[in-house]
Amino acid sequence: MTSSEFPRHGHNWDDRDYRHIIEGCLDGLDDHEIAQRVGRKPKMVRERASYLINVEPRGSRSPWTRLRKELRQNPGYDWESVARRRHAEQCLPYWDDAADARLDQAWADTAPARSWLRRPKRPAAQCMRDLETALGIHEFDIARRLHYRGVAASLAEVVDRLGARADGVLAARARTQADRDAATLHVLTVTDDSGAVLHTSLHPTGGAAEEFKDTLTARYASQPLAMWTITVGAVGEPGITIGEPASGTFASAAPAGREPVDLDDIDFAGLLDDHTDQ
User: Fold this and answer.
1) How far does the chain reach from its first CA to its final CA, in angstroms?
2) Chain-wide mean pLDDT for the chain?
3) 106 touches 151 (CB < 8 A)
4) Exposure check for the chain: N or C terminus, fewer CB within 10 A?
5) Domain ranges of the chain
6) Alpha carbons 170 and 159: distance in angstroms, whole number
7) DSSP per residue over the chain, as a string?
8) How far apart are CA 200 and CA 257, in angstroms?
9) Is residue 238 left, alpha or beta, with left meaning phi > 0 and alpha meaning psi from -120 to 50?
10) Digit-coded pLDDT (tens) for 203-230
């Protein structure tokens, strides 16, 4: 079972997930078909039905069975009111299109301006407080949502744009993240089929390392066995890496006019024998 098969597995549930479940039930889909539509495991979809149907005494049928029965008998069933109440009971934010639109507007309103005449009149901290009041969602959950959706590159950027309580969890996490980013380096290494190092360079971020790697494509595309690797290391701690390295080959980006190399056609055993005989 791969992450590509269920791309939403492990992510917070939101209004869109619930609508997929309800629409799937109304369309007569089974739990596996709905799971594919939602992007989560079937078991998780069945269990999440407890957020869409009122709680019944112990011994009653499962929430999944009761939800499907309710929708068959009443297609207009107000599941959203139940979902919002259950989220509030569990102290979980409820994200829907309207809430996301409110975040997007606040983000656009606080975009850095080239001219001081166009700078926001409200202090950043007030922007975050206004969002908390309007949405009824804590500032940390707001920041996580912006980061998850790719609107903000980091928690630190959210704090810079929208503000945060100086003694709050969001501000503390943003400082920790900034300190960690400042103390890490991304190392790009290119090796040939024998393991000899062809290139090594240091970069402040993973994005910078990826961009520089792309500039090397033309140089190494003719070497189907040339491999690039990007590792994350700690400043002042040689030999220590953080997380799993990213790696790949340049073969897939061969220049126009050249036939792509199929690695299955390469006699790796023969290559190793030739190298051993030398």
Assistant:
1) 44
2) 84
3) no
4) C
5) 15-89, 97-181, 184-277
6) 8
7) --TTTSTTTTSPP-HHHHHHHHHHHHTT--HHHHHHHHTS-HHHHHHHGGGTS----TTSPPHHHHHHHHHHH-TT--HHHHHHHHHHHTT-----HHHHHHHHHHHHHTPPPSSGGGS-SS-HHHHHHHHHHHHT--HHHHHHHHHHTTSSS-HHHHHHHH---TTSHHHHHHHHHHHHHHTEEEEEEEE-TT--EEEEEEESSHHHHHHHHHHTHHHHTT-TT-EEEEEEEETTEEEEE-SPPEEEESGGGPPTTSPPP-GGGS-HHHHHHHHHH-
8) 29
9) beta
10) 888 888 889 998 898 888 777 788 999 9
Which residues pair with residue 247 across a beta bridge? Answer: 229
Residue type, 123: P
> pTM of the prediction?
0.64
Residue 21, C-beta contacts closer than 8 angstroms, at least 6 positions apart: 34, 38, 45, 48, 49, 52
Cα separation, 160 vs 86, whole angstroms: 33
- Angle at the Cα of 41 from the Cα atoms of 16 and 65, rounded to 5 degrees: 80
For 249, phi then psi, to 5°, come to: -120, 165
Cα–Cα distance measured from residue 246 to residue 261, given in angstroms and rounded to the nearest whole number? 21
Question: Are residues 230 and 201 in contact, defined by beta-carbon separation less than 8 angstroms?
Answer: no
Of 45-49, 156-160, 206-210, 256-260, the least confident:
256-260
Strand-pair partners of 230: 188, 246
- Tens of pLDDT, residues 217-271: 888 877 778 899 998 886 655 666 667 788 888 865 444 444 444 545 545 455 4
